[in-house]
Amino acid sequence: MEYINILVKSIFVDNMIFAFFLGMCSYLAVSKTVKTSAGLGIAVTFVLCITVPVNYLINKYLLKAGALAWISPSLAGVDLGFLSFIVFIAVIAAIVQIVEMVVERYSPALYNSLGIFLPLIAVNCAVMGGSLFMQERAYSNIAQAEVFALGSGIGWFLAIVAIAALREKLRYSHIPPALKGVGITFIITGLMGMAFMAFMGIKL
Amino acid sequence: MNNKNLKYITLPWRDNNPITVQVLGICSCLAVTAQLKPAVFMAVSVTAVTVLSNLIISLLRNTIPPRIRIIVQLVVVSTLVVLVDQVLKAYFFDVSKQLSVFVGLIITNCIVMGRLEAFAMHNPPLPSVCDGLGNGLGYSFILILLGFTRELLGNGTLWGYPVTERLHDIGYENNGLMLMPPMALILIGLLIWIINSRKA
């Protein structure tokens, strides 16, 4: 039950895009067609599901205050928390690189569809944000962190596919010239965000 | 300082604003602007990181192998962000709590990476610093404008001090929607509209 709660919460209530505006840059840049944005959405979900649990373990056993106690009791007073930004971004960049190589080796078809997006993901704030929120919200075990990562990814996927579908339709509508493109996309995202606010306070 | 360097500082204010024209660094810009105070702190932090990282990368530009430049840039930027985070935690703890993960997300702020990649990798230190400063200020300008509007209309306060108290007696109401995340998006959409139509 608690897992379903985290899942629903991270998809709808704490949606990465509508509530926290994470991954906005690629959201605006890549959402021109449904097909490419679905590809990017899947890639982000995939990377989130790998990096968040890995960073969870690193945070729990290396970085948190007193986390090093399992090596020797004399290290219990060490707090490496200030290193978490550097470590997290290094882990994300490394994992994205590894994922890219593995996918290229074992699934050329998937690589061709995700290929161009994978390198972009290393600097996608939704991925970094996933790790940072995981640290801030202090999930009690790795399964919760994994469910949170999955939910955030699905939420991001839904948002980018929805806006891409809207933008495909928008091409044929009459918009004031100065508002065309980015301007109207912002306003529509705002309206979609309001719709998503209806999920606020839902608890399962 | 010659004219060219001055232009690097002033150009990103309107004609090449990182937020409204280049559409970079949107994430943090929207999330921290519900109130003026965190917006100002965020603006200062991002400007500091942009200027310093531009300076460092520009000094190192001839020694960085092109294949691993992204990693080098990320390391430089994240080191600076750790410094900013520690300073905020030490001297402005309440603000640092309010900004929560968004300080860490300066690392993945596209403005910082974008300036490093587009400018600092090919230019000497002084113009790079000017470029960083210009883009940082352009970003700050939008951030503070949004923070000002949203806090004034949404909460009736500025920097936490009540401003519209008197107006409430004659029936003025705060627009609570301004504090909600979607309004930030709509405001920035309108801002882009105004800027684009003035240009045309």
The mean pLDDT of chain B is: 84
The assembly state of the depicted protein chains is heterodimer
Q: Structural class, from helix and strand content of chain A?
A: mainly alpha
Total beta strand runs of chain A: 0
Low-confidence stretches of chain A: none
Mean pLDDT of chain A, rounded to whole units?
Answer: 83
Please trace the helix and strand order of chain B, writing H or E for each element.
HHHHHHHEEHH
What gap, in angstroms, lies between the N and C termini of chain A? 7 Å
Shape of chain A: globular
Strand content of chain B: under 5%
Described by strand count, sense and barrel closure, the largest sheet of chain A is:
none
The proportion of residues forming helix of chain A, as a percent range, comes to 55-70%
Structural class of chain B: mainly alpha
**What is the alpha-carbon Rg of chain A in Å?**
19 Å
The major sheet of chain B is characterized as: 2 strands, antiparallel
Helix content of chain B: 55-70%
Overall description:
The complex is a heterodimer of chains A (204) and B (200). By secondary structure, chain A is mainly alpha-helical. Chain A has one domain (2-201). Chain A has helices at residues 2-13, 24-30, 34-63, 84-106, 108-114, 118-121, 125-137, 142-170, 182-196. In chain A, helix 1 (2-13) packs parallel to helix 8 and helix 7 (125-137) packs antiparallel against helix 8. Chain A starts with a helix and ends in an 8-residue tail after the last helix. In chain B, a hairpin with a 2-residue loop joins strand 1 and strand 2 (161-162). Chain B has a two-stranded antiparallel ribbon with strand order 1-2. In chain B, helix 3 (36-60) packs across helix 5 (93-99), helix 4 packs across helix 5 (93-99) and helix 4 (69-91) crosses helix 6 (110-120). Chain B has 200 residues and is mostly helical. Chain B is built from nine helices and two strands. Chain B has one domain. The mean pLDDT of chain B is 84. Classes of the chains: A mainly alpha (204), B mainly alpha (200). Chain A binds chain B through residues 18-25, 28-29, 82-86, 88-90, 93, 122-125, 127-129, 132-133, 136, 176-179, 182-187, 189-194, 197, and chain B through 23-31, 70-71, 74-75, 78-79, 81-82, 85-86, 100-101, 104-105, 107-110, 113, 180-186, 188-190, 192-193, 196-197, 200.
